[in-house]
Amino acid sequence: MSIKVRYFASLKESVGRSEDELHVTDALAVHAVWQRLNPDFAMPDAVLAAVNMDYVALDALVTDGDVLAFFPPITGG
Amino acid sequence: MLIKLCEAVVDPWREIAAYQAGLTHLAGKFGATAVFVGSMRDFNQGDDVSSMFLEHYPGMTEKQLHYIVEQAQVQWPILDSLVIHRVGLVKPEDVLVVVAVWSAQRGDAFDASRFIMENLKSRAPFWKKEVLASGAERWVEKNTDGYQHQPG
Question: Which EC number(s) does UniProt give (chain B) (predicted)?
């Protein structure tokens, strides 16, 4: 199973990458995906997460084929 | 309904006039058009700002804006709406966002346009990175409260 992970804006600069690909055997919670990919970088408190372009809670499950995005508070308008 | 992201400079009045000209089926039906235009300032948090880059999440931005407008349509009897947002490099005085709502009555147009604008500020994935007059760059960390000065 494969999960695509994307980072945006200041978070992309902080982690130093815009994308990751994670191979897993079972569905994983959003926060567990972060931990797996960024073991030395605690997830900032204000981070927002989206799965397949819909907002999700950090304990939501991510599964094969999903696109998970992490980003900082939004500042449009 | 039209939702549009624009890399080029936006003339809000031309956009609104052109869109309304296409609403021939609504001629004589709407009594109210509420318009919000947001522009870029040349200052923020005490510093002079010379330009700004608007990053967004392509696909999710449009999806969230569609949800927001659909929610407004459920809550108010609006006849049509137009949402335009700039992306990419913007300069002071440039228009950043346009929200226009057409309805039979003014209350629905006012309330729906405010709802769309406030939800855009909290749910549409855009991020601003400012370039200051000093040449320094910084991410805007959060949106300010647009209603700090409520009449007492």
Answer: 2.8.1.12
